[in-house]
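Entry 0007
Protein: LysR family transcriptional regulator
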Amino acid sequence: MNWQGIRFDWNHARAFLATAEEGSLSAGARALGVTQPTLGRQVAALEAELGVTLFERVGKGLILTPAGAELLTHVRAMRDAATHLSLSAAGQSQDIGGTIRITASEVMCTHVLPPVLLRLREVAPRLMLDIVAADDLRDLQRREADIAIRHARPTQPELIARMLKDGSAQLYAATSYLDRRGRPRTEADLSGHDFISFGDVDRMIGFLAEVGLPLKRENFPVGSESGVAAWALVEAGLGISLMSDHVARASRGIERVLPERAPISFPVWLVTHRELHTARRIRVVFDLLAEFLSSEMV
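Output (structure tokens):
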């Protein structure tokens, strides 16, 4: 092993990774909890250590150079290995057993949680996991679940929450739908398209209006209370809907609608009951979920 050949600081590599994945120095600094000048100095230090230029400034944004794009793959692998090491160490030092019930939305249970649960099984094999697909925080208050993953901060005083990071969502539709109905070029064009509702239609209309997308009930001919079923309707080509980028990227035959439009941010909260958080197994799983989801979401 040529130890002298390793000439860079992991903190500098982490700064580069955060900047590349978040899209700007300011967003990367927020993600890491440091100031923008500090992050900029760390990225510059990595460039000096490696002797390459990693970013080019275009207008107010940054784009990866070819060298930066190649390096990004390796730094992501380093991040994954570091996360695995941290989780494995936590599981080894906290040998835990018993059953833990985790509740999240149907979409998150289906598209996001499985890799997290696999990692939990690796580091805590004696743990039994029960997954509840639901959106109601009352299951925590009634002790019907131990840990919840939600997109709104709970207000109940008996619950404690940790904000993991902001996810991003955009409008998506199946290529088959857009080939048939045309691709909207402006927000005004959306009024002539079909949308798929997730849950309550009026609530969804209100949320979309808040983010600058005024629609009417007639724009929602099909929908479902089930998030998984609603997304399946989008994949089948029945209409447009809002979806997290993390889920949409893993779906085949799906395109962004109005790709130049800025994404919509939404928080990801990890919640548990205040009394349960003092239980060793709950605290350990809570921390493992927080660490993994903070690095993987999005």
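Curator remark: The mean pLDDT is 84. The chain has three domains: 3-90, 96-157+274-291, 167-265.
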